[in-house]
Specification:
With 266 residues, the protein is α/β, with parallel strands linked by helices. Helix content is 39%, strand content 21%. It has 8 helices and 12 strands. A hairpin with a 4-residue loop joins strand 6 and strand 7. Helix 2 (43-54) packs parallel to helix 8 (247-262) and helix 4 (103-121) runs antiparallel to helix 5. The radius of gyration is 19 Å and the shape is globular. The model has no long low-confidence stretch (mean pLDDT 92). The structure holds magnesium ion (MG). Magnesium ion binds at residues 24, 26-28, 208-210.
Length: 266
């Protein structure tokens, strides 16, 4: 299914006048940072995004789980759509901020959970509590496996007791736990953004690396666009149209697009 994915995508895009690129940041454009609070702008990525943005028919955007303030530091480019916290915080191309969910509605419950989690993590060295205003997360990447499992399980139970299940989802794996509103979804974010894109003249590509991006893959494909996964592992049930091995390969392909579309008729 994946063979020929690249050619198929490039051929389809060459037939369109405009190209809308929706790009995840961590694990897609950039290699993972050890600490999610670490905000180190990468000059090579900025140069690439500036070059994409400068092309009159290419419209790049960032769709990230990070908070918007971080994305704005990482991508200091005006007039580019930046979506943080899975679309809950958006800076539109005209610079206006857009929040599809009212913070006051959800923050009191997160405050409660934060207090509970702070005491749970008290004295637990390798754990890291991340407060993204709209979501709370525990990172346990540097904890021993058994300790991580114990704390994450406990924290998950506490979250289920504290939060309204109609408003919040809780996502957990071995070394990560996040409580976030259902509305915080790259799929929902893409649904709202694609409404404004004219189907006939536009090609749409979404690039991402993880399960949060998969929600967006399905939406973009249903619209008629293409999903590209950035990942070196074998995917058991791939839903993407094409897979590139790592962020470096992803960046190379994006550079090549500028080249190819540059030769398109105006
Ligand atoms: Mg990612």
């Amino acid at each position: 299914m994946m063979a020929g994915g690249q050619k198929k995508i490039e051929k389809a895009l060459a037939e369109k006048r405009e190209l809308y690129l929706f790009l995840d940041y961590d694990g897609t454009l950039a290699d993972f940072a050890a600490n999610p609070d670490l905000v180190e702008p990468n000059p090579e990525i900025i140069m690439l995004l500036e070059a994409l943005q400068a092309h009159r028919h290419i419209h790049p955007a960032i769709i990230s789980g990070r908070k918007l303030a971080h994305i704005q530091e990482l991508v200091p480019i005006k007039n580019m759509l930046l979506a943080g916290t899975y679309g809950l915080e958006m800076r539109m191309p005209d610079g206006k901020l857009y929040h599809p969910l009212d913070l006051d509605l959800i923050r009191p419950q997160l405050e409660q959970l934060k207090t509970v989690w702070i005491s749970l993590l008290d004295g637990q060295e390798p754990f890291y509590l991340e407060d993204k205003d709209w979501t709370l997360a525990i990172h346990a990447r540097f904890a021993r496996k058994e300790t991580a499992q114990k704390i994450i399980d406990r924290a998950e139970q506490q979250a289920r007791r504290t939060l309204d299940a109609a408003l919040f989802q809780i996502q957990a794996d071995d070394k990560f736990l996040e409580a976030r509103p259902w509305q915080a979804s790259k799929g929902k974010c893409m649904e709202s953004l694609l409404k404004d894109i004219p189907v006939e003249n536009a090609g749409v590509v979404y690039m991402g690396d993880d399960d949060k991006d998969e929600e967006a893959f399905a939406i973009v494909q249903a619209w008629g666009g293409y999903a590209i996964r950035v990942c070196s592992n074998v995917i058991k049930h791939p839903i993407e149209d094409w897979k590139v091995a790592n962020p470096q390969a992803a960046r190379q392909w994006l550079w090549s697009l500028i080249d190819k579309l540059g030769r398109m008729s105006p």
